[in-house]
Specification:
By secondary structure, the chain is α/β, with parallel strands linked by helices. The protein contains seven helices and 13 strands. The protein has one domain: Rossmann fold, CATH 3.40.50.880.
Amino acid sequence: MKNLILTGGIFHPFKESSEALKRILMKEDIESEITEDIEFGLKKINEGHFDLLTVYALRWSMKKGAKYKPYLNQWEFNISDAGKQSIYKFLEKGGGIFGLHTAAICFDQWKDWISILGGKWIWGKSGHLPFGAVNTRTETTKHPITYNINSFNLEDEVFADLKIAKDVTPLMSARVEGQDNWHPVLWARKCFNGRVVYDALGHDKKSITHPEHSKIIRRSANWAIGNLKHN
């Protein structure tokens, strides 16, 4: 199986984390290519016989907030119509999409991204809680991704107040340790003829390689490409 990882962006160690993700998925016989050239990658997914597209990047228009101005030249991104059509075509052919962490912030100028991923960052409303100790809570063990997965703790960054599609059923929630509010961080859904999983955790390599989280990541990738058919 072949996977293309779209990565890159600010404030996250994407290079290190993407390499860790590549190694984790290789254990499932999923071979990954990594690129920071988003448009090139989106063009390539329908030319290179890929089974999975992983969006593990922080690439958006960067129009909100003066603190992003120093990074505009390198990291500003607006998905092209060709890029959108490439994703539609990939899903229509039965391809899988796996969104990690900041995937919900990506492609902010594309109103249909929420219909694909199932969730979206809303500027002025959504936010990330302080990085640190996080508790997870499994919402169902009936889904193959979370089957026999117990709640666990890790260090990560929890997103709050994402806009979530109405048909999303969370598989797992998380909270900052010591706080009361839980936030959905994992779901899986079918889209066109393909499958999509979003995992809002995964700020860095330490999160990606956490034993329980890496198990969820492996299962998520397999479910998205149709290889996880039973518990």
